[in-house]
Amino acid sequence: MTDAEFTDLITGSDGLARPAWAATTDLLRDYYDTEWGMPVRTEQGLFERLSLETFQAGLSWELVLRKREGFRRAFADFDPEKVAAFGEDDVARLLANPEIIRNERKIRAVILNARATLALREQGGLADLIWSHQPAQTPCPRTLGEIASRSPESEALTKELKAVGFRFVGPTMLYALMEAIGMVDTHLLGSHRRGSSGVWRQVGKTAARTQ
Question: Residue 63's domain spans which residues?
């Protein structure tokens, strides 16, 4: 494989190759280098990621990252038990909070999703449900154009989450979540982060689960 095939990678001043989206700002670069694609398996961690993906819908991920600490303050550090107890006064408080993205439908969805997260504890929990949809293999993309925006697994996960009361979830959003938490590895071949999660091992031209 030649360097010419890695057309969507940018080599930074540190000599490390990243996709173009992760090389535009320090914030995105740091997120890509330290967090994106790494496994998240705790209930609170997954509830936060799912909530942030909800707020990102139709907007840029960089905007969400810039407001992330504000979201954490506003939503009790994404503790599902605390968010599930939010009422109308909290909705009004959040709609007046300039530190977050003030979208009433998304705010109400996050509160409903917190309640659904608590209800799921009787069925194994949010982490078990989400990770049960991990595919047997992951893509091995050379270019950004080779990365799908959804998958059969993200479609199945959407149906299951909706069936247990989650709102504002869809197969494209959930595929982005799967990428972000390492359920699939869509780091481009040639990126310095490819294979860094420990979830996947390279087998020829494909990658299979290690667990």
Answer: 43-183
In a domain, 168, yes or no: yes
Q: Is 147 left (phi over 0), alpha (psi -120 to 50) or beta?
A: beta
Of these residues, 21, 31, 99, 160, which one is catalytic? 31
Spatial CA neighbour of 21 closest among 200, 179, 208: 179
The residue annotated as part of the active site, out of 61, 62, 99, 160, is 61
For 153-193, how does the pLDDT look when each residue is reduced to its tens digit (9 = 90+)? 999 999 999 999 999 999 999 999 999 999 999 999 999 99
The model's pTM is: 0.92
Q: What total number of domains does the chain contain?
A: 1
Could you report the per-residue pLDDT of 107-154, keeping only the tens digit for each? 999 999 999 999 999 999 999 999 999 999 999 999 999 999 999 999
Domain at 125, CATH number = 1.10.340.30
